[in-house]
Design brief:
There is one protein chain. With 352 residues, this protein is mostly beta strands. It has one domain: monomeric porin ompg (Porin). 6% of the residues lie in helices and 52% in strands. It has a 12-stranded antiparallel β-barrel with strand order 3-4-5-7-8-9-10-12-15-18-19-20. It is elongated and about 65 Å long.
Length: 352
Amino acid sequence: MTLSKSTFIASSLMLASLPILADHPSLGINSGYGGAIVGQSATTLPEGAFSFSIKQESIKNNTFSDRKLSEFGEAGQDVHSVESLDVINLNAAWGFSKKLTLGLSLPVISRNNISQAPHHHEEEHHEEEEEEHHEESTPSADSLGDSSGIGDLTAYGQYQFFSSADNRRLAAIYFGVKLPTGKTDQKTDQGETFEAEHQPGSGSVDGLLGLSYSQHLNRWSLDSSILASLATEGTQDTDLGNALNYDLALSHPLMATGESHSHHNHHHTPSLISAATLVFELNGEWRDKVDVDGTTQAHTGGNLVYLTAGVRVNFGQQWSATLSGGIPVVENLNGQQSDPNWRGGLVLSRSF
């Protein structure tokens, strides 16, 4: 099926499972229709249409030094540091009907340069000797290495339950489930199994439920959404915590024509770029603390909001590319965590 130009402009991007907190992929899904890059839109795919995309997302964190991690260890605090997080998402969506879109998202996740505060297990009769040599000792941290692999598959639906007569105001619900398809047996450089929160997969079955609203405002378009996830216990008796994503996006077309005009010979010449759109977003995520076998982990969870800017370029009526970057503007993480410095993303998408 060939999509019209206006439909493809509205549905050129599709991505899911964006990483927002320091070392966890978030639960935000984007079916790729409408102006939003990270948040959700209420626009659905046309009946019978199909979309596929691949997205590379990277987050660079402010890490703790070995000295700081050593201090955390001496204080008995279980603190981790993750240098960066890379996610490649493979996404597919299908217009089951005019009002219902079904989608799948499969991430490949890599957490790079994971370190933790050292655990001290020395006997009491050695404590005086340790204190005596403390100033002379070199601060150290446990370097665990990288953890990477296939993550959990998300299957979701988007049902548009409201559209105004002029189709300028839309509302939709999102629903879905995250399945435990990801790897949960990745090992550290020392041969031990990474903790559950640093595994590519969770081992849990989580439910997704959300609401989105979109509206055309003259030359601007607004997309807003809220998406919740209820986590269950997964690998290593660990509950990674419920999460709530909330997003607001404004988009504005920079150009919307596939032809260049010649004032001299009055004919139209097809151009490579058929449309371009500028997007600004606020992307927030609240995540509950991690629970391991009934024990709440103090240095996990919290709230984070990104300011994101990006541009989407359409090539003809089937291909598009999106480049985006963001910085945190609100950081309220629990305890001691390596907070994010910046993030960037690149998406290539094709519609059929």
